[in-house]
Records
---
Amino acid sequence: MPSPKSSPAQQIDQQAQQLDSTDKLSALKSQFELPENGVYLDGNSLGALPIIAKQRALETVELQWGRDLIASWNKHHWIDLPITVGEKIARLIGAGVGQTICCDSISVNLFKLICAALAKQPGRTTVLSQVDNFPTDLYMVQGIESLLSQERCQLKSVNANNIEQSLTEEVAVLLVTQVNYRTGYIHDMAKLTKLAHAKGILVIWDLAHSAGVLDLKLDDCQVDFAVGCSYKYLNGGPGAPGFIYVAKRHLSHFKQPLSGWMGHSQPFQFSPTFESDKSISQCLTGTPAIISMSILDAALEVFTAVDMSDVMSKSKALTSFFMQGLKTLKLDQELTCISPQSAELRGSQVALTHPYAFAICQALIAHKVVADFRAPEVLRLGFAPLYISFENVATALHRLKKIMQNKEYLKAEFQQQGKVT
Ligand SMILES: *Cc1c(COP(=O)(O)O)cnc(C)c1O
């Protein structure tokens, strides 16, 4: 317990120590390569490098590609990677076997699933989504709209709090991102899926900011379809392939339009006619990015003995501690928190708004606290439970306090914007 005489900053340090001492996941941090004296709060954009993944990268390039060359497809099971990696992800998202496969990016996988879901809903044309969804999700629907014509696909985007009342019988597909990429708001997967099904609507969940951090139960929630990426909380590395989930009950009447040879039931028969084996493999399109996928396969080893309910509990504790710290240091008077106050409704991030959000973010980076900026004025801090300690959070709070107190964000050097924010 902090003594009554300690300063607000000292109270935060004491609480951090206390919380770290009872953290079940604290040992995992040593499995990652992390900046010295820095705090990496951007694991929601690009997860940190697991040491085991670095070793795998060398092995895949030097020993497999370099020495065994094409024999590696069989010898090192490259051909099975989409399935083996898919099953490792399945365990983390509450999916039984045979429904999850690793391939392509979220954007491409959304194309496959939106088309496949629309095809299962003759007479219905609307794809309903949140207006503040991640842009690619909306862009992909817009692309399908122009490909198929509005007679077969029409995007309807509504405010996130109007989704429930917009679930009407014209809606073919509900496309919803579970955790809002800006605010971190979590949509109720069980409830929305159930409400949608009651109106005959199929649901695609985007798990970009959920997989690897929330305790997901896709099968229990009766989810139809889902997509996710692996370079955020799954730590698969830049541009690592994403994943697709198709519920078992849909696999036998499922047809996605990017029917490439890898999705064929017997790709090495080189038949001129596409035919699938009705398994989750029909979601594959072309040759998998083996180097990336092999690195991801290794990165997922970090999760082996980890219980996702512990990960989610720590996520809530980290963001709660940060938000409490903002109040203790009176930073909440200057920075407005737009993430839900209730931990139950909050993903593993905290979003703060300020007219100088971009420059504050740059100043934090100069002080080795890596966060990111989302236009127009959001400073976003991600708390990856596998490698962020409460001491890290305390350090970030102290450095942020200093930047705000000294108005360091007014310096010219922090105003320069790069291509990637
Ligand atoms: C990060 C993110 C994406 C990224 O899509 P890619 O095709 O993998 O680049 C998509 N949707 C959401 C909600 C995201 O947060």
---
Amino acid sequence: MSRIGDTIRRLHSTLPEGVELVAVSKFHPAEAIREAYDAGQRIFGESRVTELCDKTAVLPDDIRWHFIGHLQTNKVKHLIGKCSLIESVDSTRLLELIDTLSERAGVVTRVLMQLHVAAEETKFGFSPDELVDWFANGGYRSLKATHICGLMSMATNTDDRQRIAADFAVTAETRRRILSAAPDLTGFDTLSMGMSDDYDLAIAEGSTMIRIGTSIFGDRV
Ligand SMILES: *Cc1c(COP(=O)(O)O)cnc(C)c1O
């Protein structure tokens, strides 16, 4: 019996409809991913480009890989055509590069804009006001081969559940503000928020995509 498989099956049977599960497999070996895959999981999240590419080479083709880490511009080219979703676009420069390389490769890349809502200074992402302004100014209209599917955020690293819920509420509110600032925007539906310790709070605030690592695979080595 596989403990990883059991957790995947339990999550699949308990998550509300409309909430997708990203199994965050960073730092875990291909065999662990295979156990989750055999239990029916198809979306996996990785935070390092080399690790993602190594894993795509040895695992089934119908896995949908999400990139969730900070993406350096010099590594973008390795992800084009390989990722089902880049969740961590944290600058317009990165977005423009993804668009240029996707157009050149003849593919459309799906992305999420990463929102900074946590108290920590170290987390990457746009501030809510900055991102609303960018959409209001029509920045997305010049994209040729990139589809912005929504927002990704991480809550403050704290035991204060109210603070965490408030961070997720800001993310959901920012999506609504963007939609009213940019009414012609389409397919901007995804709210990727919630990890092992806080996904219940994220779902309560409207998450449509949770990213779970430790609860599925155990501690990262
Ligand atoms: C590592 C990571 C996760 C998974 O966190 P867990 O606490 O292990 O569930 C989710 N999102 C991002 C962006 C991560 O880097």
---
Amino acid sequence: MKEEAIWKKYNELKIGEYPFFKKEDIDVKEQGLWRYWRYLPVDKKDKISMGEGFTPLLPIRFGNNQVYIKQEQLFPTGSYKDRGAAVLMSVVANQGIRFVVQDSSGNAGCAIAAYAAKAGIECEIFVPADTSEAKLAQIRMYGARLTKVEGSREDTANAALKAADSQYYASHCYNPLFLEGTKTFAYEVFEQLDWASPTDVVLPAGNGTLLLGAFIGFKHLKNSGLIKDMPRLHAVQSAACCPLYEAWVKGDEVVVATTGTYTLAEGIAIADPVRGSEMLQAVRETNGEVVKVSEEEIGAALLKCCKMGYYIEPTSAATIAGLLKLIERGNNKQKKWVSLFSGHGLKSTTKMMSFLDDAH
Ligand SMILES: *Cc1c(COP(=O)(O)O)cnc(C)c1O
């Protein structure tokens, strides 16, 4: 099987067993997520870093409910993908690899291109021909080779997989080293909540790179005896493209590919997620839920956040719409909600303009 073969190939780069998480072992002299380098697959002296991570966790009020929103739009490239890219590209650089390929419809491509530039590694990013201009410009400005692929997102992935036969595949969905970076989200939340776990975490679900990273991170904290229960991990999808949601409501264990339609939340419109069954498992094992949100709900959440001063990518608004949907069900007395702004609004100027045109 294609998927298994790829897993094997990348698991060869040993991720290793980490020691139990201990508060005393956090290296507070290191910037950002590198304070947790003892639990990362690369030594701090070998890091490729632009100071990413340790984003603020802000208490924000929505109606009667106070929730904590992690400001993941504040990363160097404008999305939380830098967590995965920084760690993955650090290992890659340390292995002496000089060229990587990657495919993405946007932010993951920007992040890999940025950290490749920082490390002096060449990269080729495959994108669907209709990727938004701002992200294409960003990828090219970092000096990456950009290859546009006509057809679907899957055609792009196949083109990258073919190139990956002979080059290192720095994929955010396949390569497990990416999740080693995104797991730091959980460590930071735990530390920022004063060494406590949230009860509920609401995360975007396209390929699930943050969902799975958070699962790994909280699990590490639990195995280390620092939190008693795993927080419930909830996954949000756009109703316009929601294969995970469909498998979830049917009680299935595998995610079947769908065909998506246009959505404001382009960043989570993944019709055939690579790690679909792992995502389902993370939600089920923690007693979370998969929710889907409509275009109206995404638009309303986007306006709500922007009017509070938070200029976020429309994709990020989908997660907030899901958070609001879950909160509205009430019964929040004992709950401590955590969610995030996943990407920066400045990436989506064209989309914002047409959103404004449609709304007024
Ligand atoms: C990548 C991304 C997501 C979704 O992440 P997945 O790993 O595909 O689940 C959400 N928001 C933004 C801004 C992103 O860049």
